[in-house]
Amino acid sequence: MKFGLVDRQGYVPDMKYGEAGQELSCFVPSGYTFKQVSYVNGEGEVLVDGHTWRFFFTQEGIGAELMTGIVTLKEAETFLSAVKSHIWGDSHQQVQIFISGVAPD
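and the corresponding structure tokens:
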């Protein structure tokens, strides 16, 4: 399942990547223990609570995809809201979270 985090004005803050092997800490909110699975050019996969999430950039903002594991919609919303706050801050109200996918031809 793919999700998008998009600011209505197209604003994405400068990402502050972590140390080697923890670069993707810029996507993972504090309070979540994670293991980085892959990292290439500012994007990659992390393991959080037995679920693999892939973070990437889109034309509109930031994408997050649940690669392995099963979560409820409420669990996904809680995690993605924490990601949104981690990246944009708690007071930034312009970011929308939505389910994304490929449009049919």
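(Above: one complete record from the training split.) Residues 2-100 form one domain.
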